[in-house]
## 1
Amino acid sequence: MMKNKTLLLSCLFLYASIYSVNAQVSVDTTMTIEDLVNDVLLGEGMTATNITYNGFAADVSDLAIGMFSAENSPFPISEGVVMATGLASQIVTGGGWSNTGIDDDPDLVALAGLNMNDCAVLEFDFIASENVFLIDYVFASNEYPAYTCSQFNDAFGIFVSGPGIDGPFTNSASNFAFIPNTNIPVAINTVNSGPNLPEPNPCSEANPNYQDDSIYFIENNPQQTNSISMPGHTQLLTAYAPLQVGEEYHVKLAIGDAFDGALDSSVLFQKGSAIDSTGTNVRVDVNTENIFVDDEGMFIAGTFNNDTPESMIQVSENIYRYFANLAPHVDLTYKFYNGSSLTGAEVVPDLCGTEGSLSGLSRSVFVTIEDMILDPVCFGTCETCFDPLNTDNVGIGQLLLFPNPSPGRFQVVSPKDGFARIQVFNILGSIVYDERVFLAAGSNFEFELEERGLYKVNLSFDQTSQSHSSTLIVE
């Protein structure tokens, strides 16, 4: 597929003609790279060192990177840093064929599997004060919609390297710019409008669920009033990377044109969103009524604590509990131990077991953004089992859902008796499930969702203002 220069010139004329109605969006390319990082990109409490842009020191500026403002705009970010494979001002003026940056950054080449042109690469170091690095961003491109599902698969990466991270990129870095709840990198062919094309096609090969993942894409063609000029972009997404407090980490933000240098792309980062923060609080309970508990008590080990058994707190006759603060958007494996010895590890059944870093099968959990309370399970089984002597198991109003994540079938455990309304909302806030049922305290009610994604469940009872909410994931 070759790009038509006549079409490109027409697009340039169209973009130029709408510049006057795009006055709410502006770009400043006069700031130094150091000021862009420390004064705009980083949030409170973080300071970057060893800042470079395309290999140059911090006092070098460039027309492909700058600070942007989108006040009173439908664009998801009102202010922040923009990096482009052409001129950063293209998000205001339009355009799409500017030769800037460097070619064939090795990490972008490895990520996209193609030669990369006009790469913009921003790098810096920082010392972690919390256990999660996160940053909010939007990926936008002039490749949308004409060159969606083609070889022009412009891509970018948020590469983080340091202690505890062992990835395939430079300095053992990992890329954390993923489509939500997947390990699929964000690119033209992985997140887009989801065109219905015969398979196989470049999009289905890059992301088998590219049509479902179109919920993360915003069509901007024709351009929304006061928005950026690029005809398509993602919703506001967040990248998360696990950290070890007190250690030094290296961040590399990179974007490039795949295959050729035409029809540029950009990535826009929300001002102050690059921070290190505490992660998700997770509570795990195990019921020991079916075993004789070792004198040492119960322990837990998994990928979140380097497979080292840690003691659990006994909260009732049969329930032992463990609290952890974990990086979100990661899959973890773990299992319970009767005593601290490795010989006390439970044998996790095939039905709920998964391959992990420990011997035999392990339990697994996908950590979401919101704090989580996992359903209590009986030691060595897949069963959800509460302790009737421990009223906190039903949380005095805590809504419990399992399994979570699931291919689509869920069970909800009611915290009380009564007629209830169960509503499920998708990521856009639309109701996808709505039913009134009678629930008995501690009983299970089953419902099913068909589409992959992240959902919010709300359970409310008649004749009361109290409601209970939780987050669930359809794999």
## 2
Amino acid sequence: MQENASGERLEVAAAVLALLADRTRLALLQRLGEGEADVTTLTEACGAARPSVSQHLAKLRLAGLVVTRKDGRRVVYSLRHGHLRRLVDEALNVADHQIGALPPHD
């Protein structure tokens, strides 16, 4: 891989991780990892105010991490790809190890 392409890859990865570094966005992505959902469902799942949830979803959509589709008058959100679900799951697994003082493993 060319050095320039590698640099771009690292830059994009850092931007994705920066978006995940917010508790509300992480909760939204965790819920979307279970399947698509509308704003009402996502608001209930993450416990944040609806305007805040909408703003976070807009950031995730603009970053290309979530996609939307219309279902009547509702907008339904889903993860763009499974890699993101696995990334969120792994971040939460690391947290489980930190909280529970679990031994490291390969």
